[in-house]
Structure formats: C-alpha cells, structure tokens
Amino acid sequence: MAIWNLGSINADLVYAVPHIPEPGETLSSTDRATFMGGKGANMSVAIARAGSRINHIGALGPDGDWAQKRLLEYGVDTQHIAQVDTATGHAIIMVDEHGENAILLHAGANGEVPQTALQTALSEAQTGDWFVTQNETNLQRTGASLAKKMGLKVAYAAAPFSAERVQAVLEHLDFLILNEVEAAQLTEATGKTPNALGVRDVVVTLGGDGADWFGPEGKQHFDALPVTPIDTTGAGDTFTGYLLAGLDQGMPMAQAINMATKAGALMVTRKGTADVIPDLSEVRAFNG
After folding, report:
1. How many whole angstroms separate alpha carbon 14 and alpha carbon 11?
2. Residues 6+ apart with CB under 8 A from 213
3. CA 94 to CA 96: how far, in whole Å?
4. What is the mean pLDDT of each run of 10 residues along the chain (288 residues)?
5. Which of 16, 96, 182, 282 would be a feasible disulfide site paired with 178, CB 3.0-4.6 Å?
6. Has 237 been annotated as catalytic?
7. Can you give the pLDDT at residue 288?
8. What values do phi and psi take at 111, rounded to 5?
9. Given strand 31-37, what is the order of strands in its sheet?
C-alpha cells in the first residue's frame, strides 16, 4: 500500500538559546543551523525511513529546489510537489538548554498548494491507502473529503492546533493524533472527550509521559522511554510518521505505537528536524 501526505515543507532556521525569550526580551543565540522541516516533510521522511511508500503533496517556491532534491534523496516521492511563485515556507526555531522549543512559522508556498496537484495525486491512489494532512497547508478539508470518497483511510495530525480546522475534517477521519493540550482544547470546543469524537482511533501524545490510545476497546496507555532530551523539535512528527507507517504495513495499533514511541524517543536525543530522523534499523536497535 502507500501513504499520501498533503503536507508543509519548510526551511528550518534553528537557534540554540539559553532560555526561551520573554516578551520584549532581546537574546543572543549560541549556535545556528539550517535544516529541512515542516510538519509535512518531517512526517514524510519518517514514513520513508520506517519503510513505507510515501507520496508527498505540497508546494515550494522558486527557491525550493534543494528541499525537493533532499526529500527525493530520503526516499520520498516528490512528483506531486508543485512549484509556485510564492517563496518556500520557513520556520524560526529556538531551542533552549533543556531541549524545549518555541517556533515561529511563515507558511509561504505551503498555503498555496494547487488543487490540481492534490487531485492528480489522489487519482493515482488505491483503495486502502492512507491519506494524512496537518494544519500547515491549504486544502485540508478538500483533501480529507476527496480521499474518504475514494476509499482511502484518512488521518489528521492536529497541529498547529485549530479547533475549527479539526472540526472541519472530523467526519472524514479514521485516525486523529493530537497532544494533551490540543486534546483539552478540542474537548472544550466540542464538549466531547477523545473517545466520543466519532473517530475510530484517537491518539493523544503526552510528551515524557507517553501516549494514550482511544480505540474500539477503550483507552490504553503507553509509557515513554526514559531518555535525556536534547531537542524536542520534530519528535511528534517522527512519532506520527512511524505510527502511520506501521499501520500501513499492517501492524496492530499497539505495535505501531510502540515502534513510534521508540522513534520519537530516539529523535529527541538529536539536534535538527527532517535531516536527522532515525531510520528503521536504528529504531529497532534502540532500547532507551
């Protein structure tokens, strides 16, 4: 089978800082690096490194050839990434000494994915494939609706969080993943807990406390692996990508979550985003 990802692609400008700045504070960084990122690109790379076939649907500006080439090198099918006139999206990421981050996003080309690119891509999909998207591009609702009508399984990673955006795609979803804060905000907006949303499988990530899966048989908790975080950027995307790859490969949900937990734990011990996502052999060998 295959996974089709309508997702963002960014240049990530990562700055090491002694602490996350307060409002009005001017702070000097101690290091700077540039990586490829964006929640969509991170997930696509994670899916490829987990051993699944991944087709990325997105947009880059005239300055984005380097990102398309890098995705291709990482095993991502890039034929449905359009070039538009708007500059490639980017993120400014600050990472403190404890591995926590603050991120400023500029959507750029990510907000201008042509509908023709989406339609052409999904015309090649097969019943039973997965479609996944996140809240960093346009066409999320269109993509989820079209994929569902075509018999694809639909997943949504609810970040950056918007209760309105989640509710717009909720009826089409087979799988929803969000963090603990986002889950609380969605419950406040809808009046429904994760197990009452009408989505077959909902996973709520809890950072260092692991993850909860709300499935057909109720709630099941998964502990995190004990590691010392260096940089948490991209860990959630790595977790999601590995989880979806596991499901695509026919794993039961619990097995896919366990694999994703290992991948996410390994990711927080590294500095960077898509370029440093671990491959399957590293994940299998990693015991925390």
Report:
1. 9
2. 201, 202, 203, 219, 220, 221, 222, 253, 254, 257
3. 7
4. 96 92 94 92 98 98 96 97 97 89 92 98 97 97 98 96 96 97 97 97 95 96 94 92 98 98 95 90 89
5. 182
6. yes
7. 67
8. -90, 5
9. 31-37, 10-16, 89-95, 101-106
Annotated catalytic residue, options 129, 237, 248, 275: 237
pLDDT number for residue 163: 96
Q: Kindly write down the DSSP assignment for every residue of 150-167, as one continuous string.
A: TT-EEEEE--S--HHHHH
111 class by beta-carbon count within 10 Å (0-12 exposed, 13-18 middle, 19+ buried)? middle
Q: Indicate the DSSP class of residue 271.
A: S
Q: Across the strands, what pairs with 131?
A: 4, 154
Three-state DSSP state, 268: coil
Please give the domain boundaries of the chain with CATH numbers for all domains. 3-22+29-277 (3.40.1190.20)
Tokens standing for residue 141: 């609702």
User: How far is the C-alpha of 249 from the C-alpha of 243, rounded, in Å?
Assistant: 10
How far apart CA 288 and CA 270 sit, in angstroms, is: 13
